[in-house]
Amino acid sequence: xKSLNLRTLxxxxxxVFASYLAMGFxxxxxxxxxxxxxxxxxxQLAAGVFSxxxxxxxxxxxxxxxxxxxxxxxxxxxxxxxxxxxxxxxQQFPRLFDATYILVENEQLIPFAFASILSLVFxxxxxxxxxxxKFHMKKAVSFFDxxxxxxxxxxxxxxxxxxxxxxxxxxxFDVDDIFFDTDGLLWRxxxxxxxFQDYYWRSxxxxxxxxxxxxxxxxxxxxxxxxLAAACVLTALAGALCVYLAWDFVKQKTGNSVYAALIAALFxxxxxHLVFGSLLETYIFLSALALAFMxxxxxxxxxxxxxxxxxxxxxxxxxxxxxxxxxxxxxxxxFQEWIKYxxxxxxxxxSLTFLNNFVYPDSQPYFFVPSSLGAETENTFxxxxxxxxxxxRMMLLNSIVAPEPLLLExxxxxxxxxxxxxxxxxxxxxxxxxxxxLALTWLGxxxxxxxxxxxxxxxxxxxxxxxxxxxxxxxxxxxxxxGKDLFLYSTNxxxxxxxxxxxxxxxxxxxxxxxxxxxxxxxLLLFNNxxxxxxxxxxxxxxxx
Length: 545
Fold this sequence. Notes:
mainly alpha, 2 domains, two-stranded antiparallel sheet, 4 strands
């Protein structure tokens, strides 16, 4: 009879914990005893394969780099403590958040416990073969070689984003512009119902329905047709993917997995991604595509991969394709490839726009019809020094460290929570000593990155750095005229700010004091930015019966 060793016990505990969280949500759709038993068993056996493999990788890291192991461990533990804090905060608002929606209900505890006992017996009997699973499932598991920290970190942020997505995307939020000028009702309706027409009649999202609605439907298939829940899952998954891709880019660029994890955690904790990783809009998908494009460029993927990524970004919001063009030009530095890339994407974009309006008739005007751009004029404003200063502050500070937001009682039956109001111009302020200190610390880190960029200008490959700088300049020039609440567009530049700084800080990335600084700053950042989420909860709960 085989005995239960510590590694097997640890793998089982992790599997039970992970499957409990998944079961809590999926149990809303698979409620019978047999369904719950089969679901819990499948979840635990599937998770067990990867848990054993990840524990093997963690043990190897501990043997060779114990400090790196402990730093990654505490980063993940700290992240899950914030998951619990988020859950506790949401429970204070029962009008908005039903805890039973993501917890295993009492009648499902028995089949879940039975599945847990079965999985423990299986792990004990098969622990040796599961340790060597790499050789039997090479393709399925080899992806975890070296990617474990990024995937675990992304999973942690998914657990932060998803409860907020469920909370803030309910049908009770039945108007647009409640949070940061987002079109929550519009996109919830267009992505999850048959009323897919853009009632603002805008052409800047040429074939967004062709890209997002099939993904929502695919996820909804496993949720017995619940498209709203599927849209929440998709939004949180896109936010988690952003965290993973940020980790992957920094790891490939610097070769330091621990430093990459710290940067990715900081990125995921930013005000921009904490908010838009949970609100149903288009911006988190644009950030994910921009990050994917940067990773593909860094890995020198084939042209068709870059075409598909750029095309998807164009289809969601056409101006975001300029981010891809800028990066492609600076990194590739090949005129013939520039022309080929632009022509291919242009031809396919027109074709897919026609296809989108064939599949979804009269959903929106064509982007290549000049008169269709008139709907955007109400979002344009005269450039001014005051707006330029506010925009610079939004790009460098507010998108990372959230200030106290504006609370606006205007034309809708909700108190608006915005960061910036264009007319008359107002902007959120840091009203506490803690927030101000955190903002100044971040500003100091930005200045440090700028100094290191100038210092090492002649001795490093600056292609991505220049691309990120130009992307920031493009966004600055665009939003100097465009946007009622500038925070709405923050995911369009936050990735460029963080990745630019991560490249410049690289010479400090091995130093423990700098790693400790990023570690502490990230958790203080989460603490500060959760206050923004709390403000959103408090103000919106006042209008929900």
